Every structure is written in structure tokens, then in C-alpha cells.
Amino acid sequence: MAWNQPGNGNNNDRDPWKNQGGRDQGPPDLDEAVRNLLSKFGIGGSGKKGGGSSSSGGGFPSKGFGIIAVLLVVVWFIAGFYTVKEAERGVVLRFGNFHNLVESGLHWRPVFIDSVETVDVSNVRQFQSEGFMLTQDENVVHVELDVQYRIINPRDYLYAVENADNSLAQATDSALRYVVGHTTMDEVLTVGRENVRTNTLELLENIIAPYQLGIQIVDINLLPARPPEAVKDAFDDAIAAQEDEQRFIREAEAYAREVEPLARGQVRRVLQEAQAYREEQVLKAQGEVARFNELLPQYKKAPEVTRDRLYLETLEKIYANTAKVMVDVEGSNNMMYLPLDKILEQQRRNTDSAPSMSGNEGQNSTSSNSTRNNSSRQGTSTNSTGRTSDRYDGGRG
């Protein structure tokens, strides 16, 4: 049914914007609501419809402009405060140009005039460069290099080049490829890795110096290089052989360190023994000289007696060290020889061949031999004494 369809009685229509209570109220007036809001701030008219003075019209008075200006200035001033963290440094730009550097802490800048960019200058950054590279001996290896760096000049880092991190990565790749290209594959894989790292660091610092990147290289680390997969097994065998070579060298050096002190000790011992033997012989010779010097006066007084005594002493020393006995029979030209060494050897053989039967026999033979030896020695002594006495008597006569 239409809102204004007749037939409602009392000529009332169905308009929803009219109050059924009898008062005619239309939709709210948006312009009037805005004027009422502005009038609370002292801006605009009194909010009533109709005519009025010109001062209460739609214009803004000077008091309203002042309040708005003050509010804008306060907001602009508060918005200018900013904080730089402890590990950062701030780069201040004024109208897009570099103005100054600020340290960590609370600072203020004029908004819309100055802008600030912060850069972390304390923490160490890191990136990795890797790839397949050609060596001096025309082999291909896969090399990985870790680079650690720190920002020391925020201004150069931000504005000296377009992208300092990218420039550093390209310079690192160039330096690494140059060094690997002038190194053999065996050196890159094994013993020459430290030289590759050192040369790459030196060359990288020389490359980035003219660009003034504001970056300081802290350290680089060359990771273990790998040969291509097609020849990986052969290179593993070569590396194992080189490791075995180094191990054998270390073992040989350890053995040399162990044996050399012993040899030196033996040398010193032989030298000391030789020195002791030399001193012993010298002292012995000096003793013999002293003894002969003491015998010389006695020999001059009684030459024959001294000569016979020396002769007997010499024979005593000789017979004490031999198992053979010579017996000189008085009044005969024959000389008896008792081979005691042969007799003792035969007795030892009999004892070893028949230990069960040779007990008593060995004792009897030993006692008899001892008896014969004693008698022989006594005879020898007697004869020797007799001969000596006769010779002494003859000499004296």
C-alpha cells in the first residue's frame, strides 16, 4: 500500500516522516547539526535559523583561528620527538640533504623539515658467498665463504653507494673468484685453505676501499670446499692419502723425539765410562810407577832377592788364573802336565749324561782328583821352592 493512499480516515496519510501525534517533524538537518557543533567552539553562528547579525553568520572569527593554530603547533612539536636505540646511530636529513649524525638517546626534529634514518652500528652482520669456481689447474670446485662485517660510517653506508650490502657481496664474489683462480685445486681443498682465506680478505679490503662503503670487514671464514660429484670419490681418496702422510710424519717425529734422548743419554754414558776408564788407567799407571819407585832402593840393596821375589809373585798371579798345572820333577828332565781343565770337562760330561749313576762316582772322582791336585800342588810348591832355593843358593854362592 502506498504511504499517501487515501482511506485512512480523517484525511491522514501514511507518510513515515510525520509524527502521528499531530506534530509535523521532518528528517534531521545536517547543516544545522554542524553549525551547532561549531558554535560550541565559538566558531560560526548561534545555530538558529533565520536572519541575524552579520557577525553570527557562517564566517570563522579570529579567536577560532588562533585556537586551531595553537593546537597544530602543539601537535607538530610533540610529533618531532624521536628515540635512537643504544646500538644505532641516526642520520638527519634536512630538506633531503645530509645535516648531521646523532647518537643514541631522545632527540627532537622539526617535522616536515628534517627526517631521520637509523642505522645499527654495533651488531656484526653476516652473509655468505658461494658458487662453482675455476682453479688455476682448470678444475671446478664448489667454494663457500662467510663474511662478517660491521657498519662504521652510517652516512657512507646509506648514501655513498646505492646499496652497500649488495656492493659488498659483489666485491666478495669477485675477490674470491680471483684468488681461487690463482690457486690449484689441491690447495683449495686441503693445505692451502688458510692462504686462500688470507688473500681473499686482503684483496676484498683493497676493492671496497675506494667506494667508501662505510663498512669494516671483521672476519671471513672459508668453509670446506667440495669437488664436483663426478670426481668426489677420487678426491676423497687423495685427501685420505695426504692425511695418512701427515699422520706418518707426526708418528716419525714422535719416535725421533723418543729415541733421540735415549741415544744422547747413551752417548753421555759412553763418554763418562771412557773418561772413567782413562782416569783409572792413569791412576793405575801412576800407582805402578810409585810402586816401582819404592822397589828401586830395595833392588839396589839386594838385586837377587828382589828379582826372585818379583818372579815368584808373577808366577803366582799367572797360575791363579789357569787350570793347567806344570810339575817339574827334581833330578829329571821330564816335566809333568796335569790337564785339569780336560779332567773337569770330562767329569761335567759324565755328570750330564748319567745324572742318576754319577752322584757317588762324581764325588769319589772329585775327592780323588782333589787329593791328587793337592798333592801335585804341594809337590809343585815343594819343587818350585826347592828349585828356587837351589837357584837362590847357587846365585848366592
Q: Describe the strand arrangement of the main beta sheet, using strand numbers.
A: 3-2-5
Sequence of secondary-structure elements: HHEEEEEEEHHHHEHHEEHH
CATH class of the largest domain: Alpha Beta
Taking pLDDT < 50 over at least 5 consecutive residues as the criterion, the unreliable ranges are: 46-58, 358-397
Largest sheet descriptor: 3 strands, antiparallel
Family: Belongs to the band 7/mec-2 family. HflK subfamily.
Main location: membrane
Pfam families: Band_7 (PF01145), HflK_N (PF12221)
Keywords: Hydrolase, Membrane, Protease, Transmembrane, Transmembrane helix
Describe this structure in words.
- The protein is an alpha+beta fold and 397 residues long.
- It folds into 4 domains: 44 residues, no CATH class; 103 residues, Band 7 domain (Tetrahydropterin Synthase, Chain A); 69 residues; 94 residues, no CATH class.
- The protein is 54% helix and 17% strand.
- The chain contains 10 helices and 10 strands.
- The strands form 4 sheets. Strands 3-2-5 form a 3-stranded antiparallel β-sheet, with no helix packed on it. It has a 3-stranded antiparallel β-sheet with strand order 6-7-8.
- Strand 9 and strand 10 form a beta hairpin.
- The longest helix has 70 residues.
- It is rod-shaped and about 180 Å long.
- Pfam families: Band_7 (PF01145), HflK_N (PF12221).
- It is found in: Membrane.
- It comes from Pseudidiomarina aquimaris.
- HflC and HflK could encode or regulate a protease.
- Belongs to the band 7/mec-2 family. HflK subfamily.
